[in-house]
Amino acid sequence: MVNAPRASSPLQDFVGRHEKLFVLTGAGCSTNSGIPDYRDSNGDWKRTQPVNFQSFMSDEHTRRRYWARSLIGWRRFGQARPNDAHRALARLEANGRCGMLLTQNVDRLHQSAGHRQVIDLHGRLDLVRCMGCGRKTPRDEFQHALGRANAAWLTLDAADAPDGDADLEHEDFSSFHVPPCEACGGILKPDVVFFGENVPRDIVATAQDHLAQADAMLVVGSSLMVYSGFRFVQAAAQRNIPIAAVNLGRTRADDLLTLKVEERCEAALAFLL
């Protein structure tokens, strides 16, 4: 007996109808790699909002708290590996169907999966930038500097939180030492866009240029509650570009979507592997 061919899914049909997809990904793409997401199925925060840019820059205690938690969280975040959702999207690009992938994630897992055309909308957590002179340092290198300056903290552990954070509560952070920039003594910050900080204009412009060349848009694992990502869906809708989304729960753009698939990212994209 010959098995009947497997029926294609609406998402597979959508991808098959378009030759140049603009893909936008969010935290849901990386949850199966062990990186927690920020929001629940209704798009609401699961925990306290992430650190604010203004607070980080102006308040030494905020910086100590951030880097203490990051010292613990980076140990596992830095070991995260791509999952089938990342590999499926890399295959989509390899097959010539993805013109550009714009990710809200800062984990670089798309690149680790072999994806070549990627815009890191919110930056890279694997780099640390001096806010004084602009010098950039690999995060692994800064991890060693943090550990040398705060050896006693290396014995602590805590549950993972999004983007390399850790739920390190009830600690006195006043003794935690954050090394300054070796070049100029300036404040060191992860090379990512914090809340209250603007995405660089050239990055937005480059992404918009690629979107203008696309014949469809695919959103994977994002509730689109943050405007920095939502604006690209708005732009696609204004150009009458069809939009499909894979997300567990509500998105800010539900009324703009041509197709919505409420499945885990790796399951919805399995047809690409």
From TrEMBL:
Pfam families membership: SIR2 (PF02146)
Function: NAD-dependent protein deacetylase which modulates the activities of several enzymes which are inactive in their acetylated form.
Name used for this protein in its record: NAD-dependent protein deacetylase
Positions annotated to bind Zn(2+): 130, 133, 181, 184
SUPFAM superfamilies assigned to the protein according to its UniProt record, in alphabetical order: DHS-like NAD/FAD-binding domain
A GO CC term attached to the entry: cytoplasm
NCBIfam families: PRK05333.1 (NF003738)
Family assignment from sequence similarity: Belongs to the sirtuin family. Class II subfamily.
Organism: Bradyrhizobium shewense
